[in-house]
Amino acid sequence: MDDVWTPESVADINTLSEYLSDCRLRDLNLSPPVDCMIVCASEALYGAETVFQALQDRAGVAKCLVLCGGIGHSTHLLYEAVSHHPRYSRVGDAVRGLPEARVLEVILDGFFERSLIISNGCQILVEDQSTNCGQNAAYSRQVLETAGFHTPSSLVVNQDPTMMLRTRASFEKVYEDLAVPVSVVSYPAFVPKLRLPASTPPAAWNLSSWRRSRAYGLWNGSSS
């Protein structure tokens, strides 16, 4: 995509971003208690951070946390995000080669209080084999059922905003056989936005860590 922007094209991109981000929950502090929170690993680490912090701060907000993700074609982006993160960079070398869910687990154990989250009533599970949105949902269900969560009534799912809509659809599809529908709530943690500077293009993302090339590829279907 050429870096030639108009107010109209920026507005169109932002409309698409809002749609794909599928933001059903903007603040975890306002979330009612749910059966499970699921973090599908991505380079957008802010989502995992806010989930971990909410579980640490709010006793009873979730009965279970699933860290989700294996090793796939974009796992290297997660390694790079950790290596360049102002807080997590000290574990950048340690996480290379790990499945994405295990990368999140290293961050959880190194920078948050797992014991406090558990004492708050939340069981922590890891699904480290999935490599796409459909498998995220299917394998998470398997892990949950193995742990005794056979018929959850409510899930909050965090994912890279550009993949949030299809991730929610994947979880709804996986659980469609239950007699009582499962409430699947999308929590992208943020919605990427383009903005035009006061002068001329190029436009800029609202988060400095967001990769334009990654977002473009996801939006136009050239990556997944």
From TrEMBL:
InterPro entries, per the entry: Cell_Envelope_Assoc, DUF218, Rossmann-like_a/b/a_fold
Domain DUF218 residue range list: 117-198
A GO CC term attached to the entry: plasma membrane
A Pfam family recorded for this sequence: DUF218
Protein name: DUF218 domain-containing protein
Species of origin: Penicillium chermesinum
